[in-house]
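Ticket opened by: R.M.
Priority: normal
Category: complex prediction / small molecule

The reporter submitted a protein together with IPE and asked that the result be attached to this ticket for the collaborator who will pick it up next week. Submitted input follows.
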Amino acid sequence: MFIIKLGGSVITDKSKKECFQQDIVDNLSEEIKKADKDIILVHGAGSFGHILAKKYKLNAGYKYDKQIEGFSATHAMVQKLNTLVLESLQNHRVHAVSIAPHSILRLDNHILDEINYKVFKEYLNKSFTPVTFGDVVLDKKLGFSICSGDFLVKVLADHFKPEKIIFVLDEDGLYTSNPKMDENAEFIDSTTADKLKKLITSLDNHADVTMGMKGKIDSINEIAGLNIDTILLNGNKPERLYKALIGEKIKGTIVYGDNR
Ligand code: IPE
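Result attached by the on-call engineer:
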């Protein structure tokens, strides 16, 4: 079984509010169908979620009444994006079922408090493709907060121990710094959890050129600790997701799990 995260910057145009990348998602749906694997799919929120979540400071928890309006507006937006992803999958005969995090999971000060894993398991057993996504959720300590897609990947991978985790990005993989801001950024085609930790320490000293890439590396680093191989690849380039799913070599970054 595979866990795939479709990044918000691939499925939406992050610079424009509510801009869904239909053609790219359609290509990815087709590749998922063609590969014919058991998959839990997780997608990010992109421009559908981040703009409102930031405006209402939802990740800081409940502080003022207007956030209630912001919480439900943000939820409606990510649910709308989820419906667009689901439609694309269904049009390509992937039998997807939406599992909204806010209804099956609760956090406690950003840490997992409870989650219903059974619902994922039962749908997988019946040959469905469960689809979940970055969402606003209840938080025991904070009232509410945000559950990101990367967090869901970590929690689900820890429980289901997939064969591989795949992050679909708008870049070829990981670099030693942010390639959009630093022309000396070097591509990393394979690495280990240990080496990633060292890279994080060196990136901390160059915060100006590394923002963006560092956040990604931080979450990959936590996942690498689970001893599962993780592949990062470019979702804008045709066939890369398909080839990674069937085990062919592609341009991308592979992060080998801890016990190597
Ligand atoms: C964020 O999810 C969820 C909300 C803002 C409600 P992600 O963090 O997984 O989204 P992307 O992939 O960065 O867009």
